Structure formats: C-alpha cells, structure tokens
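Lecture notes, unit on binding sites. The following record was shown on slide 14. It pairs a sequence with pyridoxal-5'-phosphate.
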Amino acid sequence: MTGRRSWAEPWKVKMVEHLRMTTRPEREQAIAQAGFNTFLLPSEFVYIDLLTDSGTSAMSDRQWAGLMMGDEAYAGSMNYYHLESYKHLIPTHQGRCAEHIISQLCIRPGQTVPGNMYFTTTKMHQELAGGSFADVIIDEAHDPRSEHPFKGNCDLKKIEKLIREHGAEKIAYLSLETNVNMAGGQPCSMENIRATCDLCHRHGIKVYLDATRAVENAYFIREREPGYANKTLAEILREICDCTDGATMSAKKDALVNIGGFLAVNDDELAERARNMVVVYEGLHTYGGLAGRDMEAMAIGIQESVQLDHMHARIGQVEYLGHKLIEAGVPIVRPIGGHGIFVDAAAFLPHIPREEFPAQALAAALYVDSGVRAMERGGVSAGRDKETGKNLFPKLELVRLTLPRRVYTQAHMDVTAESVIALLENSRKVVGLRFTYEPKYLRFFQARFEPVRGNRVLEG
Ligand SMILES: *Cc1c(COP(=O)(O)O)cnc(C)c1O
C-alpha cells in the first residue's frame, strides 16, 4: 500500500450482474406503488442500490470456494471452529438474533441500557426485554457539522450521571457500538473505549460490544489516533475486543458475507444460558441458523476484512463520493464516515417540516431522479416514544447513501453524486410525505406514505 496514489481496489471483477436501466416514468410509478418507501421497491427497478451495506457485499473467489468446503454435519460442523475469538462464540443467523439473546439474558425489567447512540434493532430488543435505552454518546455526534475525529465516543460524564442517578445495579450493561451507524459511521477512539470500559468495570457493569463495524473503526483508529499507525487492523481489533466482556456481531457488514452473525462472551455461565437459548430460536449452538458453508464464508470474510488494502479501498471509495458532494455544497455529516455518506436532509430541504419527513421524501426523490436507492435515517426510523406514543424527532434527519463493499465502480459514484447535486439545485421540487400505513415495530421497513400535495414526490 505504501506509495499507492489512490484508493483503487486491490481486486478485479470476475463476474458481472446486469442491471436494468429504467426511465423516469417507470420510476415514478414504482415509487408510488412502493408507498414512497425505498425499502418497498422491487430491486429489479433499482439501478445503483445504496440502501444498505448489510449482506450486499460481493464475496471473493476464496469465499465462494469456501462455500464448497462447508461441512454440513448437523452437530459440531468444523467450520464453527474456524470462528472462535472470545472465550465462547455462538453463531446466529444475523446480528439481531445475538441482540435478542443478550437482551433477554442480561436485562431485567426496569433496567437502563446505556449506549453510544441507539441502533434500531438493538434498542428494540432492549425494550422487548423490559429495559430502556439511554444515550451516552458525546454531544458532537448529534451535530452533523462537528468535525470531531471520534464522534462515536461515549461521554464518561453521562455514564457517571446515570450511575449516580440510578445506581449501578439498575444498569443492565453498556452497549458499545463501534463506527456508530446512526451517527454516520463515526468511530470511537481506543482511548475512549478503554476509559469507558474501565469506568463501567469499576462499578461492576459489563460492556458488550456491537462489533458490526469494528474493523472499519479499527481503520480510523489507525489513521487518526497517535500510536496506532504501525499496528495491523487485526491487532487493533483485538485490542478493542479485549476491553469488553462480549460482543454481538452482524457479519453482513464488515465480514463480507450475505448472511451471518454471532454472539461472543467470556463469561462461562452466560455462555451456557445463551447456548440454551440459541437452540430454541436459531438452531444448534454450533451453527445457530447458519449452514456450515455460511460459517466458512464468514470465517474467510473476517480474515479478508482486516486486510489493510481492502479497508483502504473500502473507505477510500466512501471518501471519494463524500468529497464530490462536499465540493458541490451538499450538506453531509462530517467527517465522512466509514460505510456511507449521510446527507443532512433537514438542511437540504429546509422548506419541508420535520412532521413531513424530509429524509423520507429526499430518498424517494433521489430514486425518481436517477434510480439510486438510499435509506431514510431520521424521524421515520426513530419511531414513537414508548411512553407517550408521540413521534420522536432525533436531531439527525439523514438520508444514508450506504456503499456495499466491493460492488460498485467509481463511475457509479459519479452518477450518484450528479443526481444528489441536481436535486440540491432543484430542492424546492421535492414534496413532503405523510403516513398512509404505519407498522407498530421498526416502522421504517414497511411504512407507506403519500405526498402531502399532488401525487408526486419530485415535481417538474
Ligand atoms: C445491521 C446492524 C445490526 C443488526 O444486524 P442484522 O444482521 O441486520 O440483524 C446491529 N447493529 C448495527 C450497528 C447494525 O448496523
């Protein structure tokens, strides 16, 4: 990597998947039929799919070969043993199943679960277990313009305040997310991870890592934190894990597979209880709802994910798109994060009030303009207050352009940037939305909307 002039990828394309090119009238019809929710668009009508980086990455030839090496024995599949990292590792078919298990086993009704910003499924499982989430991320994380290099950091004062007010026994555990998704893919520093874990441990509070994007976080630590420039990503990742008591993992992100996840813990008794639960909900504790081949692909994906050249290209592509948008004056979350670009929809569409979901409208309008599919991360995703039933309006009202790993080219990034910039120039043509159907849980997935006037989300 030393001396390389660009972020260019350390791989070449071996197989292609054809994409359908649509017309604007086709896209207008498709988004209306999808209730102006990009989640409900059939993917055959999508040109560049930046909905999520979850399970959408391209596997390598080595991973595909690994699929053939899958040991499909019911019990004790050998691929399981390629995965062990913490003292106990229990595969699950994706991240939220690990969250379900840790929440059910470690939260008593009425307890608080502090975390550095909420994540949708994480918070949901904490609430279903009778807990309530408390945000302890630093204030800078809620400010899209703050250039803080580690916006994922926990605010130790907020944690101390919670301990003072509730008492340590009322705190189930601290949920520590690396490269915080909802903050814009923003990392935590090693110094902060260590200080957070020390503080919790001094009070007998366990820390469970949401390791979904821990490798991307390790890359930022290497880039930005003094003392890490000569360490490998694997060493930094290990250092992060060693501070914590366990981890939940969605392998669909950093680990470069289409499905997979795990729960890892150090405590023997907790591991025993988790294994008892996984057989009820997922499958035997040695495969947890995965095929043996999926576990082998995941094990190879983890190895590939910690290669510096890979991560340099991965984050380099995100930064390429981000810089194009910044140069054109598009308001995005700064600094550029790890897994995508987060457009500040409230600043982009100042004429649309929060009650009309500017980020939802912007995502729909972007699709109409160019066939690029993005995702809302704002008021719709935040849902309603558990007690009052009122809409929550988090400070961040964002559209996420999430980049799958090893999938799209630089030209695809150019098309995406051109479309976002064209919309910025015509932002007054974007129309706000209101609900026509609102599901009870994780409403952003299946909600339906209509424009507050007329029948198009992008006029003209
Ligand atoms: C995706 C994600 C999860 C949930 O994982 P799934 O595999 O989608 O169930 C949990 N935490 C974070 C930060 C995520 O991005």
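Take-home: The mean pLDDT is 94.
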